[in-house]
Amino acid sequence: MKLRYILLAVGSLLLTACSEPEKTEVTGAESPVDAEAQSPAAEGDVEALSTEPEPASEPSQVPLAADIWQSPTELILEETTVNLSSELWLNSMPVIGDDGTKPSNRLHASVKLQTTDMKTLPQGIDIFQVLLEHEDKQWLVKDNLEVRAEGELTLEVVLREGPEWVPGSRVDIAVIFMFGGVEYIIVQHDVELAQVF
Question: 78 — phi, psi (to 5°)?
Answer without folding.
Answer: 50, 50
